Amino acid sequence: MTKNGFRRDSAGAMAARPAVIGLVAAVASSLVMCMLIAFVFSLAKSLAEAAVLPLSFGAVGAGCFLGAYACSRMTGRRGVAYGLIIGFSVFFLVWVAGLFFSGAFFGTASLVKLAVTLTGGAAGGYSGMTGTGGKRRRRGR
Question: How confident is the model at residue 90, as a pLDDT?
């Protein structure tokens, strides 16, 4: 068991619990950011409707970043791999929801969304591993 309470396998297998926690964090933060964008658009009638799609893509990408960051901070290793897994999982959930609500199967917007979620997840995983946070280690003298 590590200091975070997560068990690491001797074979180096990826742990599922941090990935699930990161996925939940990514989806929740994406939803909150999209609701905030919708609220701002409902208040300000003068905002262009063309800005809705890029802002929602940005919100989903930022959510993937936050979820992957949280996951890689928990595990302390394989941040980019966890980030890509979280990014693809969020893309898949959004894509399935789009199938139910709009009926569109796959298009240019889906490719952009895939690129944004994978990039956000990989960047969040990388920064979660290399970021300075928590306790700083002192070098022995």
Answer: 92
Range of the domain at 62: 16-130
C-alpha to C-alpha distance for 69 and 82, rounded to whole angstroms: 9
Instruction: State how far the alpha carbon of 61 is from the alpha carbons of 4, 45, 73, 89, 140, in Å.
Output: 27, 25, 18, 12, 40
Compute the distance between CA of residue 47 and CA of residue 76 in angstroms, rounded to an integer: 42
Separation CA 23–CA 18 (nearest Å): 8
Q: Is residue 2 part of a domain?
A: no
Has residue 137 been placed in a domain? no
Which of 127, 109, 136, 10 has its CA nearest to residue 70? 127
Q: Kindly report, residue by residue over 63-73, the tens digit of the pLDDT.
A: 999 999 998 98
Residue 96 in any domain: the answer is yes
Q: pTM for this structure?
A: 0.77
d(CA 46, CA 76): 45
